[in-house]
Protein backbone atom coordinates (compact mmCIF):
# COMPACT_ATOMS: atom_id res chain seq x y z
CA UNK A 1 0.00 0.00 0.00
CA UNK A 2 1.31 3.43 -0.86
CA UNK A 3 0.33 6.86 0.36
CA UNK A 4 -0.64 9.27 -2.39
CA UNK A 5 0.88 12.68 -1.87
CA UNK A 6 0.79 14.44 -5.24
CA UNK A 7 -1.77 15.28 -7.91
CA UNK A 8 0.23 13.34 -10.49
CA UNK A 9 0.18 10.22 -8.31
CA UNK A 10 -3.54 10.66 -7.71
CA UNK A 11 -4.25 10.82 -11.45
CA UNK A 12 -2.09 7.76 -12.10
CA UNK A 13 -3.76 5.60 -9.46
CA UNK A 14 -7.29 6.87 -10.16
CA UNK A 15 -6.89 5.40 -13.64
CA UNK A 16 -5.37 2.16 -12.30
CA UNK A 17 -7.63 -0.74 -11.36
CA UNK A 18 -7.46 -1.04 -7.58
CA UNK A 19 -8.58 0.32 -4.23
CA UNK A 20 -8.31 3.61 -2.42
CA UNK A 21 -8.44 4.06 1.32
CA UNK A 22 -9.38 7.57 2.36
CA UNK A 23 -8.95 8.49 6.00
CA UNK A 24 -10.41 11.56 7.62
CA UNK A 25 -11.95 12.75 10.86
CA UNK A 26 -15.10 10.65 10.25
CA UNK A 27 -13.30 7.35 9.69
CA UNK A 28 -11.53 5.17 7.15
CA UNK A 29 -13.28 4.21 3.95
CA UNK A 30 -12.41 1.66 1.31
CA UNK A 31 -13.29 2.69 -2.24
CA UNK A 32 -13.04 1.38 -5.75
CA UNK A 33 -10.78 3.53 -7.93
CA UNK A 34 -13.97 4.27 -9.94
CA UNK A 35 -15.94 5.69 -6.98
CA UNK A 36 -17.21 9.25 -7.35
CA UNK A 37 -15.73 10.01 -3.92
CA UNK A 38 -12.26 9.30 -5.28
CA UNK A 39 -12.17 12.79 -6.66
CA UNK A 40 -9.30 15.06 -7.65
CA UNK A 41 -10.92 18.16 -6.17
CA UNK A 42 -11.43 16.55 -2.76
CA UNK A 43 -7.93 15.08 -2.88
CA UNK A 44 -6.45 18.49 -3.63
CA UNK A 45 -8.33 20.11 -0.77
CA UNK A 46 -7.45 17.47 1.81
CA UNK A 47 -3.93 16.50 0.90
CA UNK A 48 -2.47 19.48 -0.95
CA UNK A 49 -4.47 22.39 0.50
CA UNK A 50 -4.78 21.11 4.06
CA UNK A 51 -1.41 19.27 4.09
CA UNK A 52 -3.03 15.94 5.07
CA UNK A 53 -3.82 17.24 8.56
CA UNK A 54 -7.34 15.75 8.52
CA UNK A 55 -7.06 13.08 5.89
CA UNK A 56 -4.84 10.83 3.83
CA UNK A 57 -5.18 8.81 0.65
CA UNK A 58 -3.71 5.34 0.10
CA UNK A 59 -3.77 3.02 -2.90
CA UNK A 60 -3.30 -0.71 -3.35
CA UNK A 61 -4.17 -3.13 -6.14
CA UNK A 62 -4.55 -5.92 -3.53
CA UNK A 63 -8.13 -6.16 -2.20
CA UNK A 64 -7.12 -8.29 0.79
CA UNK A 65 -4.45 -5.83 1.81
CA UNK A 66 -7.05 -3.06 1.59
CA UNK A 67 -9.52 -5.04 3.73
CA UNK A 68 -6.86 -5.57 6.38
CA UNK A 69 -6.35 -1.86 6.92
CA UNK A 70 -7.27 -1.24 10.58
CA UNK A 71 -10.90 -0.20 11.16
CA UNK A 72 -11.61 0.34 7.46
CA UNK A 73 -15.23 0.24 6.25
CA UNK A 74 -16.56 -0.23 2.74
CA UNK A 75 -17.91 2.91 1.10
CA UNK A 76 -21.70 2.78 0.78
CA UNK A 77 -21.61 4.46 -2.63
CA UNK A 78 -19.25 2.03 -4.36
CA UNK A 79 -19.53 -1.22 -2.38
CA UNK A 80 -21.11 -2.98 -5.38
CA UNK A 81 -17.81 -2.37 -7.20
CA UNK A 82 -15.74 -3.85 -4.37
ZN1 LIG B 1 -16.60 4.79 -2.63
Automatic annotation (TrEMBL):
Indicate what this protein is called per its UniProt record.
Answer: Uncharacterized protein
Amino acid sequence: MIEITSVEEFKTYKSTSGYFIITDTTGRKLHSNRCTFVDLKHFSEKVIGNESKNGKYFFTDDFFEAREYPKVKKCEACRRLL
